[in-house]
Amino acid sequence: MFSPACQVSNNGLLTFTGPTSDCNPILHSGKDLIAPLWTHLDNTKGGTISYREETNITVLAQITATVKANLTSSAASSAFIVTWDSVPYYSGRGVATFQAVLLSNEDHSFMLVNYGNVSWTDQTWLAGYDTEDSVSSFTMPVSNPHDLSSVGNTNVDGRCSFKVDGSSN
C-alpha cells in the first residue's frame, strides 16, 4: 500500500514530505520528489488531474509486465496511478498529457512514466526525480517537454521505467 503522504501537485509533481505549490522546478531541493513534468500548469483552464490506488490483479499484471525486465521477483502488489490529461500550460500555449505509476511488490519499488501529447513550451520545466539528500536523482535527457513523447527506456516511445527503492538497478 502507498502512503497517504504522497502529495499530488497540479504542477506535475509528486512529493512525499508534504504538499508544495512550487511551479518553478528546482532539482536538489531537499525533498523526495517525482516530477513526470514539473512546470507551471493551470488546470482551472481545462484538463483533468486524477489519481487512484490500483489493487486489481489484472491491472497489476499488466503494469508488472511493463517493467518485467526490472522486476525480478513477484508481481506488483499495489500501484498508485496519477494522470494529468490535457492540462494547459499556465502561459495558455499548449497542453500536456502524462502519467506517473508508482508500483511495488514485497522487494522493490518502481516508477513508470507514460508521456502522451506534450506540447512544446518556453516555460521552465523539469522531468525526473530526486531524493531528499540527492543521493539518487535523474533528469530526462531532452531539451523540451515535447520530446518526452519520443524517448523511453522500455522499447516503447514515451514510456520510462526506473527503480526507485534505493537498490541497485
Give an account of the 3D structure.
With 169 residues, this protein is mainly β. The protein has one domain. The chain is 6% helix and 37% strand. It is built from one helix and ten strands. It has one helix at 57-66; strands at 7-9, 13-15, 33-38, 48-54, 78-88, 95-104, 109-118, 126-130, 137-139, 159-163. Strands 1-2-3-8-9 form a five-stranded antiparallel β-sheet, with no helix packed on it. A five-stranded antiparallel β-sheet has the order 4-5-6-7-10, covered by helices on one side. Strand 1 (7-9) and strand 2 (13-15) form a beta hairpin. It is globular and about 45 Å long. The two termini are 22 Å apart.
Keywords:
mainly beta; 169 residues; five-stranded antiparallel β-sheet; 37% strand
The radius of gyration is 15 Å
Main sheet record: 5 strands, antiparallel
- Would you report the number of β strands? 10
Assign an overall shape: globular
> Number of domains in the coordinates?
1
Mind sketching the topology for me?
Layout: E1 7-9, E2 13-15, E3 33-38, E4 48-54, H1 57-66, E5 78-88, E6 95-104, E7 109-118, E8 126-130, E9 137-139, E10 159-163
Antiparallel strand pairs: 1-2, 2-3, 3-8, 4-5, 5-6, 6-7, 7-10, 8-9
Structure, briefly:
The chain is mainly beta and 169 residues long. Helices cover 6% and strands 37% of the residues. It has one domain (7-52, 81-99, 108-163).
